[in-house]
Amino acid sequence: MTFKALLVEKDDSGATSAHVAELSEDRLPDGDVTVAVEYSTLNYKDGLCLGSGGGLVRSYPHVPGIDFAGTVIDSNDARYTPGDKVILTGWRVGEVHWGGYAQKARVKADWLVPLPQGLDTRQAMIVGTAGLTAMLAILALEQHGVGDGPILITGASGGVGSVAVALLAAAGRKVAAVTGRPENADYLHRLGATKIVARDEIAETVKRPLETEKWGGCVDAVGGPMLARVLGQMQYGCSVAAVGLAGGPSLPATVIPFLLRGVNLLGIDSVMKPYDARVAAWRRIANETPLSLLEGMARPATLADLPQLGRDILDGKVTGRVIVDVNA
Ligand code: NDP
User: Which of 52-56, 57-61, 80-84 has the lowest mean pLDDT?
Assistant: First the structure.
């Protein structure tokens, strides 16, 4: 039995290249559950893993794809039987363990969650790791404090940002979306953003540690100088959920917003999230995600499209969620 996969290989010079290959099932890694993958997605980390790996990939040849949804075809674990629909996010799948850019995947049962009622496998992947992360960020904001001002979303037209805008707007919050691409303003308004903030307006390095209080919370996918600036614009006692570093890993901030405005900086990690927390977040996603908006975020792709799309996402050129139909 063979299956199609996007294989990333490394040559003797250290250069990597990705191509669609036909592989035999005995090449699948060890695991408890074998899944017939239906959909996977493109995330920032996949962009890294499709290229030189960015320090994430441990050995080659490698199959990227940090998330997938599909149907169980074989299981050694009592929780899953053939025919069950499942979702995988995180646990370094697609980084150190072969991932979802393949028609078959074999993983540990603990890394899966059952597909929640109300979503099909494609819809679940429009949400995907990006949307799970957005929901975890929103849960953290709710737990630690939000104010009455708009919630700021940085990197808004990307995967995490798009889902965060839609979820918060659907919950009735005012949402301010930061984007470096003014041409995406209509897209962000359709998702529910009430205000568009130009990236340049907020990207300058901190000049004053405290500015006018503007935001009742923030989901930050960008990090770097933008996150530092946002900290000084938060309303008293409000929270910033930091999910990513599309704008760089440095944080040129001062301690003053924490001391004088009681700002909370919350780190969000979806990768090693325990089973119960993932199941709870997926239930809430299934109950609260406006399904009609999901289609507007989705951009279809095949395995063969991924090498170019991987370069695009690292260049910040991808809008919304790229949904990979691995059987197309
Ligand atoms: P995307 O590339 O889809 O989105 C990132 C967005 O950030 C871009 O669309 C762009 O939005 C903006 N952006 C890109 N480059 C820059 C820059 N240099 N300066 C300012 N803004 C920039 O990525 P994802 O949404 O998938 O992921 C976002 C971040 O979150 C990544 O760092 C990723 O690794 C991380 N992540 C973390 C997770 C976790 O568990 N903590 C899970 C998933 C992702 P615009 O053009 O609108 O400005």
Answer: 52-56
Q: Does the C-beta of 289 come closer than 6 Å to ligand 1?
A: no
Gap between the Cα atoms of 43 and 129, Å rounded = 8
- Confidence grade of residue 1 (pLDDT, cut at 50, 70, 90): confident
Query: Domain for residue 276, yes or no?
Result: no
Which residue is closest in CA terms to ligand 1's atom 16? 247
311 in a domain, yes or no? yes
**CA distance linking residue 67 with residue 133, whole number of Å:** 12
CB atoms inside a 10 Å sphere around CB 211: 15
Q: Is 155 in the pocket of ligand 1 (CB under 6 A)?
A: yes
Range of the structural domain that residue 133 is part of: 129-267
198 close to 226: Cβ distance less than 8 angstroms: no
Checking if the pLDDT of 123 tops 90, the result is: yes
For tokens 């994430």, the residue is 56
Same domain, 161 and 80: no
202 CB within 6 A, ligand 1: no
Please report, for the domain that includes residue 56, its CATH number.
3.90.180.10
- At residue 253, what is the residue type? A
In a domain, 274, yes or no: no
Answer for the pair 150, 194: CB distance below 8 angstroms, yes or no.
yes
- Indicate whether 134 and 263 sit together in one domain: yes
* Span 259-285, average pLDDT: 96
Give the other-Cβ count within 10 Å of 224's Cβ: 19
Q: How high is the pLDDT of residue 54?
A: 82
21 DSSP β-pair partners? 5
Domain contains 284: no
Residue 157, CB-side half-sphere exposure with 13 Å CA sphere: 21
Tokens 């090449």 belong to 27
Domain count within the chain: 2
